[in-house]
Design goal:
Blueprint lengths: L28 H10 L8 E5 L1 E7 L11 E4 L11 E3 H9 L3 E5 L4 E6 L2 E4 L3 H13 L4 E5 L17 H9 L4 E3 L4 E3 L7 E7 L2 E9 L4
Parallel strand pairs: 1-8
Antiparallel strand pairs: 2-3, 2-4, 2-7, 5-6, 6-7, 8-12, 9-10, 11-12
Helix pairs in contact: 3-4
Length: 215
Amino acid sequence: MTYDFYSSWDGKTGENSPLYSDGNAYLSVDYAMNYWKSNGAPAEKLLVGFPTYGHNFILQNPSNTALGAPTSGPGPAGPYTKEAGLLAYYEICTFLDSGATQAWDAPQDVPYAYKGNEWVGYDNIKSFNIKADWLKKNNYAGAMVWTIDLDDFTGSFCKQGKYPLITTLKNALGLQSSSASQGFLAFPAGQSVRGEESRKRGQGRAEQAVPQGIT
């Protein structure tokens, strides 16, 4: 579960799922996965978590939009997810379309955005591709997506097609086809599908384990 590294309880802005660390060596995808591997878990049995949501914050000072900027609490709830401090990817696209400034966090290889006193750290197509390449180079087993329904499942918000993040991940890992709307992903012959229905924050959301499919 390589996400939720920063949220409103931290009192400062931070990335939800940074690939690399920036100041705190423990809070990154790279560190978390290497921790398991260095303690004896085989890389070929480890799945990397990919979030299709971000965490938003209220800035104490709207003119300070940097990483680590002081915050006063969670950002406003999205119109659909209705949970303060969390936005689905499709809600983030709406935030971006409203005039938010987009920025790229180069040291951590993930984006963030801000407008007024609201700040959000999230993942997008670019960061998913970078993480997928890193996953393959490190010979991890595959990816787990949290969650199917937080991606732009209609394709109408982000204008990037249906399930833009999951589709990006599928393509990057060499998978052939998907049926994400039914709660699973399909793989090349000989590959198995491992999935389970989970509940998080009182809402039913599907968690998906995605074998890499790369030989």
